[in-house]
Write a structure and sequence with these properties.
It contains two helices and nine strands. With 151 residues, it is mainly beta. Strand 2 and strand 3 form a beta hairpin. It is globular, with a radius of gyration of 16 Å. The structure holds manganese (II) ion.
Length: 151
């Protein structure tokens, strides 16, 4: 039987959890801006998912990417916009976003406030792909998408 753990306490009002480090989303690159990641649960044999909290600062964004694995997201702080496939949508508190496999996606904090969201992902997953020139040309066929994306 797996060892039981006590609850991990939220640390007051700052979207931090006891014993959980705050990391830049990715260590290198310029294709993202002002985003941090906290891994709240790293997965286990019985539950092979990671449960993460991402926070995008005002005017920041996540990487524009796609991959075979899916995401399930819930906004728990602030608001912003998200690209899923060929749609840009406003998102706010407690909205749910499902990112299907091989679907372009990008989160942006466009409302002058933080955009914080929980994200569930499989522990076993493929490496994200970034768009090539052909992909970008296809995405830019839609004017709203073209104006939204940051690469
Ligand atoms: Mn992704």
């Amino acid at each position: 039987m797996t060892e039981a753990h006590p609850p991990i306490r939220n640390r007051s009002d700052d979207y931090r959890w006891e014993g959980v480090e705050v990391h830049p989303y990715k260590e290198t690159g310029t294709h993202f801006k002002s985003i941090t990641r906290q891994t709240l649960f790293a997965g286990s044999d019985e539950l092979p998912v990671e449960f993460r909290y991402f926070e995008v600062s005002p005017d920041g964004h996540s990487t524009l990417e796609r991959h075979e694995h899916a995401h399930l997201v819930m906004v728990i702080r602030g608001s912003g916009q998200v690209l899923v496939g060929d749609h840009v949508s406003p998102i706010g508190l407690h909205d749910l976003v499902h990112i299907p496999p091989m679907t372009w996606h990008q989160f942006r904090a466009t409302s002058g406030e933080e955009l914080g969201f929980l994200c569930v992902v499989s522990t076993e997953r493929d490496r994200p792909q970034r768009p090539g020139e052909d992909d970008l040309a296809a995405l830019r066929q839609d004017q709203a998408v073209g104006q939204f994306i940051r690469v």
